Amino acid sequence: MKTLYLVVPCYNEEEVLPETTKRLIVKFNNLINEQRIGELSRIVYVNDGSKDKTWTIIEEIVQSSALFQGIKLSRNKGHQNALLAGLMYARNKADIVISMDADLQDDIDAIDAMIDANNKGFDVVYGVRSARKTDTFFKKTTAELFYKLMKMLGADIVYNHADYRLMSRRALDGLSEFDEANLFLRGIVPLIGYPSTIVEYERNERFLGESKYPLKKMLNFAFDGITSFTVKPIRMISVIGFLVFSVSILIMMYFFYAYFAGKTVAGWATTVISIWALGGLQLLAIGIIGEYIAKTYIETKQRPKYIIEAIIGK
Known about the structure:
There is one protein chain. The protein is elongated, with a radius of gyration of 25 Å. The chain has helices at residues 17-33, 54-64, 79-90, 110-119, 137-152, 169-176, 185-192, 215-229, 232-260, 268-301, and strands at 4-10, 42-47, 68-73, 96-99, 124-129, 161-168, 196-201, 308-312. Helices cover 51% and strands 15% of the residues. It folds into 2 domains: 4-212 and 303-312, Spore Coat Polysaccharide Biosynthesis Protein SpsA, Chain A (Alpha-Beta Complex); 232-301. The chain has an 8-stranded mixed beta sheet with strand order 7-5-6-4-1-2-3-8, with helices on both faces.
């Protein structure tokens, strides 16, 4: 039987953690009793610098049940870094590792299907939402737009997949080879290249608490994902620049024609519109290029992605 570690990043999850723990205990005990996973299987809560009582609750949970372990990061490093910390901790202890969020939106019962898929030889099993019934119209539309945009720009990501996935030990070993500071695991994991498949599940509404991904964070996350995995935005700037230059040549030819034909030349409106359009295009271009330069700057620093302050549990 394979040893399974379940990695759960936690940031200000004091409201939902007791219920999550209760459900995971039932699931793991059933899997162990059915001999689908080994008795050394564990659930690892990673505290990502929470400001509430999340870590205190994790300590109490670990003391009350041998199924649980806790990792405390020295400060808040973001969901992706907290998730990576848990994955790298578990890779030398488990045969397979599943990552999921603490808010109970991911269907815990999909773990069974992930294990079955791994037993068939798949190193990576992606949890994919079968529908977005619980999302608002805005969130559903923007999410679909994001996945389509990423595909259009050349990033190899799984449609409607977040961070609910199973990875084998050798897949995690492959993940450890990626040393980039700008983490976007949804894009990195498919680059590993081992056999993969998907498991569909119905995503639930958040059990309690507030979403840790408000609009601002969602936009930042999407922009980080795009700029971390493709240089097409810079190439698009070159194309747009060429098109604008071509249009300016045509406009110049028109002005010469109007001048020699004795027609009225367009006045201040044309001038102002041209200045604003070109100025906006230049600022946009500088901003996108600057974003790539900033990411390069961060990568060259080679700062640690996270620092573990404490590990509890056996």
